[in-house]
Amino acid sequence: MPELPEVETVRQTLQKQIIGKKITDIKIYYDRILENISATEFKKSLIGQTFKKMDRYGKYLFFILDTYTLIVHLRMEGKFFLKKIDDELNKHEHIVFILDDQISFRYHDTRKFGRMVVLKTIKKAEIMKYPALAKLGKEANDTHFTKEELYDKLKKKKEFIKGALLDQSIICGLGNIYVDEVCFMSKINPSTMANRLNLDDVGHLLDSSITVLAKAIKAGGTTIRSYTSSLGVTGLFQLELLVHDKENKPCPICGTIIKKEFVCGRGTYFCPKCQKIKGPKVIGITGSIATGKSVVTTYLKKQGYEVLDADEIVREEKKPQGLLYEKLIKVFSNQILDENGNINDQMLSRMVYHDEKMRKKINALIHPIVFTICEKKIAKSSAQIIFLSVPLLFEAGFDVLCDEIWCVYLQSDVQVDRLMKRNHITEEEAKQRIQIQMSQEEKCQKSTYIIDNSRELCYTIEQIQKILNK
Ligand SMILES: [Zn+2]
């Protein structure tokens, strides 16, 4: 799809090719391209008019004539060609202008999404009153667009910055390709909530927009897949793209592998290291098996804190409509299902605990899915602090999501005892399950705070409150 730089390239090219030429006839083969005017009126208005100037706003091209303005939006595939009058008509050429020097100027559109509007004015202020134009925001490369203005618009937006930058009423002229580039240059993750950005971040976005668009216009726009600009001009900016379309290639700044994710329904490219999601403070809660993480999270929830619980997410996604259900059946077959078609957790954990290879396999399947769900929930949260409870927080790499980590600790003998009672298992089984995890000591060492849950509940709560007060 042509974006602002491509449309600007078309404008500059046409400025050289058609200015001063008079329309002597018009042939219309598909009149639904015309948005606000009938085919008859279109011809009546424009035949006899001379092209005076080419202008543009965002992705709209303005053909300024003697007394009329023709506005064209190329949408997905619209292009213009100059051909000889008797050249054969291509089936995708829908509107043909015959010019006075015996040249035909043809509008070509394979998908027919492009639109033309005719207005009886040549004044820009009047043109901009046309409804589709009136609702557009300032242009992304407008040097008079201040960061304060953009910040005012973004601070009310509870959506990802990717979506906000694609919203033409907020900022005009950035499409999918350039939003990725602008976010990368500004070190902002496309999945960051727009209202979490500060004035400096917004300033970076505007500076990057101006830089990226100026570079792209100079290079003649970007050609990816179907789009080539009019008259055979092919843009070269794709040679300079930093992240867009670079999945699995190294980040040009830090070397981390560029990721592709769907954000706001659009294929989005970013460096996970340079572009961290700006979200609430994330406090990880972890601890070895049966140490009582839920005691801590239950208390935090009661205090009104937002808590993300990995076990709860797994439980939810294991349900028949969840993301893990089919995947687990594929690995373990139907034998893990109960008579109602639900996954039998006890059966599953028994199979996993006795088979290290299988345990690794199932963890490799579950962890990335839960990680992505947590990442998205954190990004979308409007809380100042969010707690993330993950039993295998270190083992599964969830620590990268956390600003600090609390480890719930239990004296070893108490832990064995509690696990035996909780899961109705023998001492030997309990010890075996504890052994396969990272040791409590190692977890404590890697954590910011340790909460000793070996004694009565009130002592545990006292410790939590002390940390919270800090
Ligand atoms: Zn990077």
Q: How many discrete structural domains?
A: 3
What is the third-level CATH name, the topology of the largest domain?
Rossmann fold
Shape: elongated
Number of DSSP helical runs: 17
**Which CATH class of the largest domain applies here?**
Alpha Beta
Q: How would you sum up this structure, described in words?
A:
- The chain has 470 residues and is of the alpha/beta class.
- The chain has three domains: 4-133, MutM-like, N-terminal (N-terminal domain of MutM-like DNA repair proteins, Alpha-Beta Barrel); 147-270, Helicase, Ruva Protein, domain 3; 281-469, P-loop containing nucleotide triphosphate hydrolases (Rossmann fold), CATH 3.40.50.
- Helices cover 38% and strands 17% of the residues.
- The chain has helices spanning 4-18, 39-46, 124-127, 131-134, 147-154, 161-166, 176-185, 199-219, 293-302, 310-317, 325-332, 345-353, 356-380, 412-423, 427-435, 440-446, 457-469, and strands at residues 23-28, 53-57, 60-64, 69-73, 79-84, 93-99, 103-108, 115-119, 259-263, 266-270, 281-287, 306-309, 385-389, 404-409, 449-452.
- The chain has a five-stranded parallel sheet with strand order 12-13-11-14-15, with helices on both faces.
- The model is unreliable at 224-234 (pLDDT under 50).
- The structure holds zinc ion.
- Residues 251, 253-254, 256, 271, 273-274 line the site of zinc ion.
